[in-house]
Amino acid sequence: MLERLAKSPLLLGAAFLLSALLGAGLYAGIQAAVPGANPDKAKIEAVVRAYILEHGEILPEAMDKLQARQLAERQKALGEAPKYIAAHKAQIVDPYAGATQGNPKGDVTVAAYLDYNCGYCRASLPAIAELVKRDPNVRIVYREYPVLAEESVTAARWALAAAEQGKFLAYHTAVYAGGRTDEASLEQAAAGAGVDLAKAKTAANSTRVSQEIKKNLDTAAALGTSGATPFWVVGNQVISGLVDYERLAAAVAAARAGK
């Protein structure tokens, strides 16, 4: 059982969650059953831990139920996605400053929600480049979606600051071509992209940049894609994960056909 936990981060997370829930439940139960009681929380947690170790078989069951509930919630959100997209079209397809690629007047917009620390996001870049090359009437709108690390937030803030100066694509390309996204490397990428660093630092910490990132996070939550990187909105479709050119092109074709 311990070996399975070590190999499964999700299962390990479920173990911690279940332990916390059981501990909280027992603690509350004792307080409710014995008015005025002040049970030793450390002792209760020790009992819970011992129970988990003795009955580790409950963890896979708990994880299965958690995953099933999350899947149901995600499917419900995806089922309602077209309605949400129609009602919030501007916040999805209207770019932040110059965070775009392709035809600015294209008839179909691909909204790409990316994190600079996401390997699948980086691996999807050739598909975007191929789509722009083959389809002269498509527009890519890049949306900052920093969920994987604190450095992702910093990278996103710099990206939006670069977009305000018309340097988004140069910065975007430099960051993905680089390695670790720390403060020094991001500043170097911005400088290499021709960004005015003093203005960018001010913009990166502005309320408007914070609001843009929050808006994107709210959209992800509403579409049932929270934590999934990358994800894409094309027409009324939501696509999660790594994509190739064929999949993006098919989504664009469906959007043109009004499907």
Write a structural description:
This protein has 259 residues and is α+β, with helices and mostly antiparallel strands. It is built from 13 helices and five strands. Helix 8 (150-164) packs antiparallel against helix 9 (168-177) and helix 8 packs across helix 11.
What's this model, at a glance?
With 259 residues, this protein is of the alpha+beta class. It contains 13 helices and five strands. The protein has a five-stranded mixed sheet with strand order 1-3-2-4-5, sandwiched between helices.
- The coarse silhouette is globular
Radius of gyration: 23 Å
Number of strands: 5
> Which sheet architecture does the biggest sheet show?
5 strands, mixed
The strand line-up of the biggest sheet is 1-3-2-4-5
List low-confidence stretches.
Answer: 1-35
- Helix content bin: 55-70%
Distance between the termini: 47 Å
Structural class: alpha+beta
SSE arrangement, N to C: HHHHHHEEHEHHHHHEEH
The average pLDDT is 83
Fraction of residues in β-strands? 5-15%
SS summary, helix count:
13
